[in-house]
Design a protein that fits this description.
Four Helix Bundle (Hemerythrin (Met), subunit A), about 65% helix
């Protein structure tokens, strides 16, 4: 008996999110109208997202245990929340509404189905997930930590294992690309 893969939007979204990100990055640079101030403000907005992703990566033990400590005591998806914050920083840095609106639409179209799919997997693997799901919001965090006083510990090894430094490198590269666009435009118009 042959089993064909079930092609749901969640499955497709998981497969296309990274390649789509590269396409969006190219369109983003093309449509952006940055200034030095917008880049500085965008960096300030994105920095907490980069920090949140870094901290979350140092707590999560993917496929081995249900992580409920660190930032996972406040939101079930701190990595995705960090990505949203970084994306908002990029939107601010771009100074173009036609960049900001698609960022929000892409998040809802791509990441919400991915989150739902991951949660379905976690519910099937970890019996405690249902209780955790009731106590901790999906994306927007609680003000206080859920669960016991056990806080867990950040692991530098997990941070590097999950290669979370890529969020910092990628964000810096995007902001550098915006800075180069300003420098190129200034030079081509004789302002530089």
């Amino acid at each position: 008996m042959s089993h064909k893969p079930k092609w749901t939007w969640s499955c497709i979204a998981q497969r296309i999110r990274v390649p789509l990100g590269f396409v969006f990055a190219a369109v983003y640079i093309w449509l952006a109208h940055p200034t030095w101030d917008s880049i500085a403000i965008g960096c300030a907005v994105a920095a907490p997202g980069i920090w949140l992703r870094a901290i979350a990566a140092g707590f999560v033990k993917k496929n081995r245990e249900l992580t409920i400590t660190g930032p996972y005591a406040y939101t079930r998806n701190p990595l995705y929340l960090g990505s949203v914050i970084i994306a908002l920083g990029f939107a601010v840095a771009s100074r173009n509404l036609w960049v900001g609106v698609p960022i929000v639409l892409l998040f809802f179209a791509i990441y919400l189905p991915v989150i739902r799919s991951e949660e379905k997997y976690l519910a099937g693997v970890f019996p405690d997930f249902e209780q955790y799901q009731k106590a901790v919001p999906r994306l927007f965090p609680r003000l206080t930590a859920a669960g016991s006083a056990e806080r867990g510990a950040f692991s530098k090894e997990l941070y590097f294992k999950h290669r979370e430094y890529n969020a910092l490198v990628g964000s810096a590269a995007m902001m550098l690309a915006l800075a180069l666009k300003i420098a190129w435009h200034s030079r081509s118009t004789g302002i530089f």
